[in-house]
Predict the structure.
Amino acid sequence: MRRMTARPANAHQARLLKLLRDGGPRSRAQLGDRVDLSRSKLAVEVDRLLETGLVVADGLAASRGGRRSHNVRLAPGLRFLGVDIGATSVDVAVTNAELEVLGHLNQPMDVREGPVAVFEQVLAMAAKLRASGLAEGYDGAGIGVPGPVRFPEGVPVAPPIMPGWDGFPVREALSQELGCPVMVDNDVNLMAMGEQHAGVARSVGDFLCIKIGTGIGCGIVVGGEVHRGTTGSAGDIGHIQAVPDGRPCACGNRGCLEAHFSGAALARDALEAAQQGLSPELATRLEANGRLTAVDVAAAAAAGDPTSLGLIRQGGTRTGQVIAGLVSFFNPGLVVIGGGVTGLGHTLLAAIRTQVYRQSLPLATGNLPIVLGELGPKAGVIGAARLISDHLFSPA
Amino acid sequence: MRRMTARPANAHQARLLKLLRDGGPRSRAQLGDRVDLSRSKLAVEVDRLLETGLVVADGLAASRGGRRSHNVRLAPGLRFLGVDIGATSVDVAVTNAELEVLGHLNQPMDVREGPVAVFEQVLAMAAKLRASGLAEGYDGAGIGVPGPVRFPEGVPVAPPIMPGWDGFPVREALSQELGCPVMVDNDVNLMAMGEQHAGVARSVGDFLCIKIGTGIGCGIVVGGEVHRGTTGSAGDIGHIQAVPDGRPCACGNRGCLEAHFSGAALARDALEAAQQGLSPELATRLEANGRLTAVDVAAAAAAGDPTSLGLIRQGGTRTGQVIAGLVSFFNPGLVVIGGGVTGLGHTLLAAIRTQVYRQSLPLATGNLPIVLGELGPKAGVIGAARLISDHLFSPA
DNA sequence: CCCACTTTGTCCTCTCCCTGGAAAAAGTGG
DNA sequence: CCACTTTTTCCAGGGAGAGGACAAAGTGGG
């Protein structure tokens, strides 16, 4: 099947495509309610989109009291690939043009194996999704990587946890392999875009999206747009000092947030507690699996283990301290917490909230919701699909 | 004299006005080089601006090898009023349409005396500038206040250091008194706009502007636009925790940056040092003036007083700690340090730089200049003029 | 001083886009 | 079956803008 080649010819068409993407199929009249164009102009632009094949007719709409109108929708065969490369696993999903996830695969994988090995895996997963009949091909792909990205070129720069990736032409290489346009971004930014598109952050202009996984990062959305910073490293909050003269961190400093709380730090603290006999619950789990992860701590906490609860609370407090500073600085309308450790759930959330509300000024926190992301592991892939669709649905 | 009533009718005219404001008088042809309009269209829009009186002819331009062209410039009679209300003093300046400062007054005044008293003073100063022949009237005024502002309405909200101002309709009231449009913003945001317009931050899209005066605040510029936050309190970094379990702060918490370093904190530390006999230099000054301020510390440090130097270095280190966190988070292209304590100069700057470069990741700091603002007390008033001119030079 | 060439400013036409009205098409409900 | 509503198409007219032609003004060399 020939894939999408057309792009909107002007801003009006781009606007219409995005309306159809975000609101689903609808009639010309309904589109007209939202775009401030004359009926004739609207009809012309819709006709042109129909000609390009990006948009197709979709039956009759419900009557609003008069003549029923003909619906239009985005081409049902359009497929976007969303790829979320984490430190320890890869998520790949197919979406339709409305960014609904049609199929989603997850595979454990160490990002340190390098771009070549990882992309082999990603391509295999993409092929598998295609083979299962969900897609005949891909019209575009969004890729998230766990480190800073020089956004315009789609190239990772100086990524601390993925050394082999520095300067690897991710966008170029994947575009070649997949035969479609590709955009690359930091995984946290994509999570933010995902929650903005389909999660808790709909209709919020300025918000922060904190992702706590193997490391800690923060997506920053200003006026509806992701802020990436001058060198693409904005949101890199894992190495903000949380504890003066605290634990040494891989980055060379001491007391970094990430050294005190993150998936990796939590696992290490749990191991220590188990070995010191502080927590029978964790000790049992260590014996059973031979190792401990954040998931074990979550389970132990759920079972009421006080040591695990304490670890989570302490981590939440430290994270909350840092977030409090960011809230004072940035004054967001919403803070979303997500990532691998959301399994820690409300214990973590409560600790973070307590600390933020205590430490930030009332004006900034007065009406500030701090909530868990609602998309879980889908946030990243939906954000990735959104990234590429934003690109393709913009005038060339 | 009748003041400016016209506003640009469309985005093209707005663009032209801003070019003339920022680049000074120039010919139609030179304007054409920068706006991507056909010559005929450009001529039409310039003619319309000439009709409104916002723009006037200004003689012949130098030849570029052919026919000499006629220059145009913004109306030479346009006057903006820039007002910068600080915690302990008020700056008022008149500018022309190009935002050049034609006259500038400064008056000590305690903002806690309340809006009525302060505005009486401001109006007197504005009248004095007018009386000295610098202006026949004002076409617009920008006002900066030392606290959060609900920007669209131009009303201070919950300002910690200026209790009487909460909810006072600053914009409304001053607009009435001055008989011209008024815009209100936080003083730090205006300082950032000033440095962006005429100072060190020209041509930088994302930067932070730290103002250290009686308190500490931070202007945030993202993509050339000031970020004000959801409730107008963005940049309120004075109450970020710098020292865990540190000094009690007026806000109710402990260890706030402002409690440890600011004009007020520095004066208090200096007093303590003088009384404990740690610094003969400061003790002498205390005896001479009956009190100590940041200026005394600066002078003592310049004279080599080790205690004063130590205070400045320690303050710089703490400020640097906080800035390091903000740099990791925001990844700016520039950090500007300004405000009353810039008199502390390079000792302070060196301490801040050391701390930021040590604590933030190389990718974010690699090419990050940290510099003193170059406009001093003029930054605020220029920023204020810029604020109102941006407003008036936009389509209504 | 004349001439070739460059730059600038003006004029004019042609095209395209869009608005807004009119009318036709398609439904709803009594 | 009829009055009314909503949607869609069609059409004429106005307006804005691009772009070319040409006039005006200036430079520099012969």
